[in-house]
Amino acid sequence: MARPSILRRTIATPLILSALLVAFALVAWFAGSRPFNQTVIDIFLQVIFVVGLYTFIGNSGVISFGHIAFACLGGYVAAWTTIKPMMKGMAMPGLPNWLTQLEIPFWGAAIAGGAFAAFWALVFGAVLMRLSGIAASIATFAMLAMVNAIYSNWSSVTAATSSVVGIPIIRSLWPYLVAAILAVFVAWAFSISRYGLALRAARDEPTAAAASGVNKSLMRSCSAR
Length: 225
Prior knowledge:
By secondary structure, the chain is mostly helical. It has helices at 2-10, 12-31, 34-60, 66-82, 85-91, 97-101, 106-128, 133-153, 155-158, 173-192, 194-204, 206-211, 216-224. The two termini are 29 Å apart. The mean pLDDT is 85.
């Protein structure tokens, strides 16, 4: 009976947030202004990033810088798989030939980028989330610095600090709106799930949570992914 009670008490939050996002989309749609349309798209993207940060930081209490690195990893996979082969050959000549010739649709690339980022989140999370407190925060910052150093200097593969051009862009509001609302509900579902409740228990009362059999490292790894 506890789970339905939690659902009823908390469902208002994702519903209100989703309604606000829909309102933003409708205002931009009726306004018909391309700059305002892009601003609202940027808002939706920022919501997705912030909700992702909340899912880990808000539940675990550990300040993490790693999500920025995972966004970088996924973003480059999306770029490598959507840019025209000729442009990739000129801007990033160090890419393997099969990757240079590969060109898949935008949404397929988005899924591939997300899967790649999730894989590395699993790898790094299994190691870093054995730490806690400031030690975990420093470790995630070190991981971010490492990813930044590699991708900022590997010019033949990432174009280094030069702008990567040729990535197809979707200007329609609605896919971004759906993604933002989905992110809100996924974060909410995780927060009321067994894993989310266990993670907050480990955050607030680590000794009692450990005595109850909560594996803090496992919970944080699940949240990081």
